[in-house]
Design goal:
By secondary structure, this protein is of the alpha+beta class. The protein contains ten helices and twelve strands. Strands 1, 2, 3, 4, 5, 6, 7 and 8 form an eight-stranded antiparallel sheet that branches.
């Protein structure tokens, strides 16, 4: 058994129809077929967004296949997946309560990190170290951050994650049970993706969800869909008002109307034509409008600009400004910057002894010379730039 259950097997387990384990899962651990479909759709959208982010990091085409959702146990992961592998834990801090694991092969991590550092993806001979783990953590932070943004749109609420943690795990000898205790006992949801990065990576990655966390996402999706349906339902049209009875006095009057004689003017556009039996409408009298000339206070007189200027400048005297001292500048190509190493000397465009530049909030305001004040550097202003 490869550990991947078909949809029919999942449905049979959910209906307590049997299985290899013999005993049915508890009610709070069961996942319906509809929930599996919802989880697959969430994973598909999230990983599609993450693939776009990964493309911008490695500058290679990234293809991630449609996810395959199945139930699994920890023994299935240990028996199926390559050892050692990299576990990346993504914890949700806002909007959702829980975490999930992303499992990558060691070789795939080496290729991704080499591409991120400007290589061609073939420098994978070195052992996986802290530099690789730090780089893949940053990549997953951006990827899963963009996936959380997509999830926020689906759930209609803010979703945020903490910085992911990457660890090289042997699956059997170096497990931290405190970190993955929700996966060591019972079933969990495994989502498998096929990932291709150019012609360098053709592999399978896994995302592991605790059942409680997956159900929380499905419940949020269900509530959001219900809310949208309720908002889109229009209220029933208001009943038409009942016709008012005609007053008796008006009904008693004979409704006589002289026929329109030739030469009588027709109703103008915008006027209501006279119907037989209706009295002539009285013209509306417009209320008179009182219009007066606007008057403004004169600015002439005892106005003293110096006084107002001083009061205004005092209002911003305590606003902090950033002062930067620039020793010099230079221009380097990307290749030269990638060749930087401890001990590299960078030649600047300043001559020894030439005054240095003083900038306030990025604006060039003064020149000065470097001095030493006890154990700190300082700048003595020699010229103010107008």
């Amino acid at each position: 058994m490869d550990g991947v259950l078909s949809q029919e097997e999942i449905t049979a387990l959910l209906q307590n129809g049997g299985g290899d384990a013999g005993a049915p899962a508890s009610a709070n651990e069961q996942v319906t077929a509809d929930e599996c479909d919802t989880i697959g759709e969430i994973a598909n959208i999230s990983m599609g967004t993450a693939a776009t982010t990964l493309f911008s990091l490695v500058n290679h085409k990234v293809d991630i296949s449609t996810p395959v959702v199945s139930m699994a146990k920890w023994e299935d992961i240990v028996s199926q997946y390559e050892r050692p592998c990299v576990f990346i834990r993504i914890a949700y801090t806002v909007g959702l309560d829980g975490s999930n694991l992303l499992v990558l092969k060691e070789q795939d991590v080496k290729v991704i990190t080499d591409l991120m550092m400007g290589g061609d993806g073939t420098n994978t001979e070195d052992e996986l170290g802290e530099l690789h783990l730090s780089a893949i953590s940053e990549a997953m932070n951006q990827m899963m951050g963009s996936a959380a943004t997509s999830l926020s749109s689906m759930l209609d609420k803010t979703i945020d994650i903490s910085p992911p943690e990457a660890n090289l795990i042997d699956l059997t000898d170096s497990l931290d049970e405190k970190e993955i205790d929700e996966f060591l006992t019972g079933d969990f949801i495994k989502i498998s993706f096929k990932m291709e990065i150019g012609d360098l990576v053709d592999s399978t990655i896994m995302q592991l969800y605790p059942i409680s966390f997956a159900k929380e996402m499905c419940e949020s999706i269900k509530k959001n869909m219900t809310k949208d349906v309720e908002e889109n339902v229009s209220p029933p049209p208001a009943a038409a008002p009942a016709p008012q009875p005609m007053p008796q006095q008006q009904a008693a009057q004979p409704m006589m109307q002289q026929p329109m004689m030739q030469g009588q003017p027709m109703p103008m556009q915008g006027q209501m034509p006279m119907m037989q039996g209706q009295p002539m409408p009285m013209p509306m009298m417009q209320q008179p409008v009182n219009v007066q000339q606007a008057q403004f206070q004169s600015f002439a007189g005892d106005f003293n600009p110096a006084i107002f200027q001083k009061e205004n400048i005092d209002l911003i005297m305590d606003v902090p400004l950033e002062v930067t001292v620039e020793l010099g500048r230079t221009t380097k190509s990307i290749q030269e910057i990638l060749d930087f190493a401890p001990g590299t000397i960078i030649e600047l465009d300043k001559i020894a002894g030439e005054p240095i530049d003083v900038l306030v909030n990025g604006k060039y305001v003064a020149k000065g010379e470097v001095v030493v004040i006890e154990e700190s550097f300082g700048v003595r202003i020699t010229e103010i730039i107008k």
